[in-house]
Design brief:
6 strands, 3 helices, Nucleotide Exchange Factor Grpe, Chain A, domain 2, about 180 residues, rod-shaped
């Protein structure tokens, strides 16, 4: 019986050892699975951060694109308005010539003056102004000298004596340079 008890105890110990080994294997397998899960989680978090960073960069790029596009469209509109206005400068020149040629106190001259004032008013509303030239110092950014003449009296060298064709500009740019005669 003692032998039998020893056998039973030995079997019981072996069963407990097997159970402990099984528990250890399960625990080890759980640890391996947890490590793998942690690795996958870290990899997923890293990928998420990369995607989020890429999304934020693309969103910023798109916002910059929209802003640049809006600016380009606004500039194109202004440029086209100024280009269209510039095409009316010869009409304004011809109206000035017609005013000079028209007889005083005639209804024709009054009509031409009204049209001239209306056109000048439209230019003023658009921010277009005449470039001052006569009697001031020559400025190559605003004036286009087509002739130089000798000074008369107390005229200073480099001043504009005569304006042959008026120039026009906005605050930002010159639309047409004044054609001038400059004192040497």
């Amino acid at each position: 019986m003692a032998k039998e008890n020893k056998k039973k105890e030995k079997i019981k110990m072996e069963e407990e050892t097997l159970k402990d080994n099984e528990k250890a294997n399960v625990q080890e397998q759980d640890n391996v699975e947890e490590d793998a899960t942690q690795g996958l989680l870290k990899q997923a978090e890293q990928q998420r951060d990369e995607y989020l960073d890429a999304l934020l960069r693309e969103r910023a790029n798109f916002e910059n694109f929209k802003r640049r596009n809006e600016q380009a469209v606004a500039k194109a509109r202004v440029d086209e308005r100024m280009n269209t206005a510039s095409r009316f400068f010869p009409v304004l020149d011809n109206l000035e010539r017609a005013l000079t040629a028209a007889e005083e106190n005639s209804s024709l001259k009054e009509g031409i003056e009204k049209v001239y004032k209306q056109l000048v008013g439209i230019f003023t509303e658009m921010g277009i102004e005449e470039i001052e030239a006569e009697g001031i110092a020559f400025n190559p950014n605003l004036h286009n000298a087509i002739m130089q003449v000798e000074p008369e009296g107390e005229e200073k060298s480099g001043t504009v004596r005569t304006v042959l064709q008026k120039g026009y500009r906005t605050k930002e740019q010159v639309l047409r340079h004044s054609l001038v005669v400059v004192v040497k």
